[in-house]
Amino acid sequence: MPRDLVVDDAVLEILAEQAPLTVVRGPRGYGKSATLNAWLSASPPEHQVVRVALSREANDAEEFWRILDGELTQAGVLDGEPAADHRTRVVLALARRSEPLTVVIDDYHHAGRLETAADIDDELVELVRQNDQLYLVVASRTTRAIETSGSLSVDVALVSPRELKLRAPEVLGLAGRLGVPLNEREAERLATGFAGWPAAIRDVLVRSRGEGGKINLALADDYIASMVRDLRHEQVRTFLLRTAVPDCFDAELAELVSPGDSTLTILRNVRAAGLLGEEIVGERRVYSYAPIVRQALVRMLAESRPDELREVHRALMTRCLHKRDHVAALVHAIHAGAWTTAEQVMEDEWHHLVTQEPAVLMAAARLIPPDIVAERPRFQVARDEVDGALTTGRPGRDLIWPTGDIRGLTAEIGPTALRNGMGATTFALLQWGVAAVLAGDESSALYAFGRARTVAQEAGEGPAAVALATLGLAGTHAIYGDVTIAASWLRDESLRTPEERPPELAGYVAYWERLIRALVALDRLDPDAGHLVAAMLERTRRDEIWGLEVMVHAVSAAVSGEPGDIARWAANVRAARHYLPQGRMAEMVLRATEVEVLLVGGLFDDARHVARNLPVNAVSMSTHARLALAGGEYRQAATRAREALEHPALSQRSVMECQLVLAAAHHALGERAAARAAFAEAVRTAYASGQRRPLLVLRHSVFTALAAGDQRVLGLWPEVYRPSERETAEEPRGGLTELLTPRELEVLQALHQHTGAVPIAEVLGLSVNTVKSHLRSVYHKLGVTNRSGALRRADELDRAGPPGHVGTG
């Protein structure tokens, strides 16, 4: 027994209490014998103690009773010469014992086998039950009847693996005794990694002394390997090695990876021995090995039984495919060497893997042998390209949208593209780019389309492949609001020779080019935007790409301001939403577009109804801010705009919209300095991005007021959208900000939500008399006599503006 021991005082107290039957249970190396030594050395019973250590010879029941007879005789408990019937001699002597006696049986798991083990347990329990002078302590690796059914007959004290395992403080104490320098973090790591396995932790610490005191967790492999090799039953050894492959498992999975008639029995025994952690997940009981133990078991399986390791991974792969867990299926397929399955999973779930699980995809691909990777382009992209996107400012995982199902697009264009000279690598990169756009991952989309363009050019894959990659770059910049950059890509040389494109691909290139040109023209408020929208080609497949086409038409209707077009396209957007999966970015964009179109059409109540169930996210935050502004809720509009501007995934278009909402809200509240500051930020965004359409959030009169005569800024508003002289003359003078003081504006704003002076006073922190005074002044200035009249007149003054304006401000 090692002398450098750390035994929990609580365990020693359990032993010192001397229950009629005490069971110390734990797997090999859990310090059972050491704990008994510590107890008998520190505070042994005051009466006679006989200690017996068993070996495998005790598997034979007769040999067990012979060994017990010999030890009791040597201790003077039994008189005379040993008889042939050792069992009868021991039982009679212990049953008649009139003075206190403690019998400690170590390695009790060797006592008998199968039926004979149960007979031994029953006999010993009966002895303890009959004679209150007899105390029995057994130390065993496994759960036996003496512990389970014995507790029904006598009082049983149990020292389980939970009490025997070491925790971080005990690990620190043990390291100190062994002379190994260890900090609290390393102690916690050892305790957690081994689940407190005392002998394994001690083995690593002792061996680390020979390596200069530096903790080397790889040394644990030797201890675990020795433990596994020392197991008596091959089925148990196989169970440990094979069930260590999955991170965790339940009974069903255990039978899958380690099939056999005794699998569930072994599971029960291994769990009872303390080698498995256990928790309830949902309605399942799930088991797992401690991290360092699991790693050692898997390494042992890989080194000693590589074919079995692949067999386990193949079984897990099949199960994951059945459950449609394609990420796990891919990993298991690669470990199993099932390259065809791995490639098929990558191809079928490329859009999901490359956007939702890029790190897993890349790590999995790097496990594939180089010669296999060289034969499969998609493996090459996963191994060599994905890591480039992970370092280019990719948004956090919580900001990535679920991708649309691009299988339809793949089936539509894939065979045609590959037939016409596009390489498989280029096509995989284009798929990645489209999926990243739909996932809201702008940086990855730009990286993927950029690499597709480079690969297509270097491989000489033809003008259509380069043109599609170029349009991917232009479309990504256009969708995320970088209009100037998108326009520069639309002038690229690869888009100037449509006659050189294969006829089968020419239609796809033309569709994308016209769609992107129309979106860019709308965002810049180009005079020919309407013509470009009319020239777009119509897509028959009702997917996310078609949803973008509907959005462009609806935005065009909103910009034109024609009542008939607005009503028609608001209805079209509403219908289009139902064709797309809910909760994805494309569907969310259509919902936000519907609100925008309804606001332009003056249908505020309808817009608010649509926005009622519109989640707040990167797509909709500017929409909610504009809705509050249109409803005259200026404080709320400003708050929502500021919150949106803090969002890391906001597009340039939404950034500019929020800056303008902030400027309009502050202007309406009479906060001139704040309005000018927000407007200046919007102007800088307009110059940087090329965006002009968000300017229509403001009335033209507010825009000119905030521009303060700066001709360069005034030039941002396109001539075609400026109000005529007649409309300017008809625009109401003396708006709310000119009529009312800032405090009166706040009181008027509060009047939207509250019906009297008392609640308004509570909200604004004013006295009731002060609020009544402000209300009288507001009613007088607006020429009304009551709340409804004030709200109606305020709405008239605030919402009146030149025909065609998109927002109120």
List the helices and strands and how they pair.
Elements: H1 9-16, E1 21-25, H2 32-42, E2 48-53, H3 61-74, H4 86-96, E3 101-106, H5 115-130, E4 134-140, H6 145-148, E5 156-159, H7 161-164, H8 168-178, H9 184-193, H10 198-209, H11 220-229, H12 234-243, H13 251-257, H14 263-272, E6 277-281, E7 284-288, H15 291-304, H16 306-322, H17 326-336, H18 339-348, H19 350-356, H20 358-365, H21 370-375, H22 377-384, H23 386-390, H24 407-419, H25 424-438, H26 442-459, H27 463-479, H28 483-490, H29 503-524, H30 529-534, H31 544-560, H32 563-577, H33 585-600, H34 604-611, H35 621-630, H36 634-645, H37 652-668, H38 672-689, H39 700-707, H40 711-714, H41 725-730, H42 736-739, H43 742-751, H44 757-764, H45 768-782, H46 787-799
Parallel strand pairs: 1-4, 1-5, 2-3, 3-4
Antiparallel strand pairs: 6-7
Helix pairs in contact: 1-2, 3-4, 8-9, 8-10, 11-15, 15-16, 16-17, 17-18, 17-20, 19-20, 19-25, 20-22, 22-25, 25-26, 25-27, 26-27, 27-28, 27-29, 28-29, 29-31, 31-32, 31-33, 32-33, 33-34, 33-35, 34-35, 35-36, 35-37, 36-37, 37-38, 43-45, 44-45
